[in-house]
Amino acid sequence: MFIRVVIFASLVLIASCAIQTHPPHVHSQRVDYYQLETHKPYDEVLAELEIAIAEHNFRITGHSRVGKVIRDRGAKDFPEYDTIQFCNLTLARTMLEITPHAVGFMPCNVVVYQFAGKTIIKTHLLPEDGDNPELNEFAVKMNPQLKQIVDFAAEE
User: Where is the secretion signal located (predicted)?
Assistant: First the structure.
C-alpha cells in the first residue's frame, strides 16, 4: 500500500512539473486559415499565385518545393507540396511598429498541395480579435488581400 501511495505521489509531482505556463508578457493567439480547392493544374496554380502576390504589391521571399525535393531523393510518386513566403516591407514595418510580437505572423505564407485529386491553397490570416485594437484594425485591412491572393489562384 505504501508503495502505491509513493508511486501516485511521484506521478502527481512529475505531472505538475510538465505543465507549461506562459509568462504574463507572452500572448497566445489562435490562428485562422483561409483555404480553397481547385481542379486546375498544379503548376498553373503556382504561376497564378506568383501573379496575385505581385499584383498585391508583395515580393516573394522564399519558395520551398518540398514535394519536388522529396521526389528528387527517390520517392518518385510523392505528391506536390509547396510553401511560398512573401512580404511587403512597408506593411511589415507598420505591423511591427504596432507590436513587435506580430513578427510571428511574418512573412505572409501560402501553402499549395495535392490531396484527393484536388489542389489545395491555404494561407493563415492575421487575428482580428486580439487584445491589441490597432493590430486588429491592421488585420481587418490585410486579411482581404490574403484571401484575394488565394481566390485568384483557385479561380477556374
Answer: 1-21
pLDDT at 70 over 70: yes
* Residue 142 Cα distances to 16, 53, 125, 149, 151, angstroms: 41, 13, 8, 11, 15
DSSP percent split of the chain into helix, strand, coil, nearest 5: 50, 25, 30
Question: Closest Cα partner for 130 from 26, 27, 33, 25?
Answer: 27
User: What mean pLDDT is predicted for residues 66-71?
Assistant: 96
Q: Please give the grid coordinates belonging to residue 104.
A: 510571428
Residue span of the structural domain in which 39 resides: 30-154
Q: Is residue 102 domain-resident?
A: yes
Q: What global pTM score does this model have?
A: 0.79
77-98: pLDDT as tens digits: 999 999 999 999 999 999 999 9
Alpha-carbon gap, residue 69 to 78, rounded angstroms: 10
Phi-psi region of 32 (alpha: psi -120 to 50; beta: other; left: phi over 0): beta
What the block records as the C-alpha cell of 88 is 511587403
Residue 138 located in a structural domain: yes
